[in-house]
Amino acid sequence: MGRHTGVNSMQFKHNLPIAIWCLATFMDAVVLAFVALFLKDGPFSEPLFNWAFALGLLVIAYMIGSHAFSKPCVRLTLEASGIRLRLRYPLTAQTLNYRLDQLQAARLVETKDSEGDPYFTFCITFADGRIIELAEGSRDVSEPVLTEFTTALRAVGAGIAPSTETAL
Hints:
The chain is α+β, with helices and mostly antiparallel strands. The protein has helices at residues 17-41, 47-68, 139-158; strands at 3-6, 9-14, 73-79, 82-88, 93-98, 103-112, 118-126, 131-137. α1 (17-41) packs antiparallel against α2.
C-alpha cells in the first residue's frame, strides 16, 4: 500500500516480480544442470541428437526466463507536480516522469488463475500506452490499493496532503 514520503506525496510499491525472478532463476539453473548432465551422459547414440535436444531445452528455458525477467518492480511516487515511476529490472532500472493529466485510467482487472479462482490486478494506464501493475492477487489485496491510489490522486490534485486513514 501507499506510504507518505513528504507533505504532498505518496509512494506505492510493487515488488512481487522479485519472487518471479528468483523462481525463474532457479528453474533456469535446474535446466542448465539437466542439459549439462544430458550432454555428458545423453541417451542417444548419435551425439548430434544430444546437442539438438539440449539446444531445444535451452531455448525453452530462455523463453521462460525472458518473460519472467520482463516484469519490473515498480515504485510510483505521486506528487502535486506529477507521477514519478521507477521501474527496476534484474539488470537495469528506468525512471519515468508523467504529469497528472497523462494518467488515463486506474482500474482493477479481474481474470482467472490456473485453478479457475478470481485473480485481480490493479493497473494504471498512461497516455503513452504504458500499463503499470501496482498490485495483484485476491480482491482483498488489490482493491484497497486502488482505493488508496484514487484517494491520494484526488488529494494531490487538489493540493492537500494524502491521507491513509480509512473511514468507518
